[in-house]
Each structure stands twice: as C-alpha cells, then as structure tokens.
Amino acid sequence: MKISIKMKKALNDQVALEASASNNYLAMASWCEVTGYQGAANYFYAQSDEERTHLLKVVHYLNALGAVATIPAIKSPASSYKSLEGLIKTALKNEQTVTTAIHKMVEIAQKEKDHSTYAFLEWFVNEQVQEETKFETILQKFDLLGRDKLGINEIDKFLAVKASAPSEPTV
Ligand SMILES: [Fe+2]
Ligand SMILES: [Fe+2]
Question: How far apart are the CA of 145 and the centre of ligand 1, in A?
Fold first, then answer.
C-alpha cells in the first residue's frame, strides 16, 4: 500500500464525512421543499449532489492506491429545522467540521511526507474555503434583507438563482 494505515483511516473517515454531508443536505432540501422554500430546496438538492462527488473523489483515490475504500453507514440526519436561517447555520457548522478534518489530513500527509495525498488534498482545501464562504454569504443576507416573510422570500429567490447557475462552482 502506498499510504500509511493512519492516512487510510483518515481518508475513509473523510468518505463518511462527505456521505453524511450529502445526506444532511438531502434532508435539508426535503424540509425546504415541504416548507415552501423552493429556491432553497433546489439549492440544497444541488449541494447534496455536490457532496456525493466529493465522496467519490476520495473513494476513487483510495481505490487507485490499492487501499480500498470503506463505504460507511450513515446516521439519520435531522428531519426538521426551526427556520431557514437555523438550517443555514447548521450547514455552515458542518462545513467547518469538514474543513478541520481536511486540515488534519493535510498535517498527517506533511508529517508522513506523503506527497501524493498532500497534492490530492489541495483541491479539498480550496473547496472548503468556497464552501464556508457561500454559507457565510447566505447568512449575511438575513441581516441585509431581513427575517420577515418578505426578507426570507428574497433569500429564497437568491438561492433559486444560485441553484440554477450550474456553471458557477458555488455561491
Ligand atoms: Fe464536501
Ligand atoms: Fe461541503
């Protein structure tokens, strides 16, 4: 095997984190859909798909090294949220957790002089900067547009536009 047992475990843990992110966003999308936030629903369905592509990147990387990825069981996500703002706050927290995990892997790769994993992780480091920024930007909209029905409707429209702009990598 071309990577250490420790690195393999960290990457497999990352598969589980991405799977859980995908599942969480799917649950968020579903809640938004039944609550009447169609723009936010579309946005989070797309986020869920995006997280699945992250998961696949790690699975393919492990398999290519002959390390064999472990496909994890996923815990049930929350099925309801107090508000759209609360939901976005949860999404940001999840992304911060993922960022921490990725940074820890980078440190392991550096310590072990595992240059291939270090290079592989670079994409994820950059991606997490975008992921956190996009949820911070959405949260800022609640201050800018308000938390009353009209404000939330504007935020939902903003998310609808973001969801229908596939060429744009993120927010
Ligand atoms: Fe991700
Ligand atoms: Fe993410």
Answer: 28
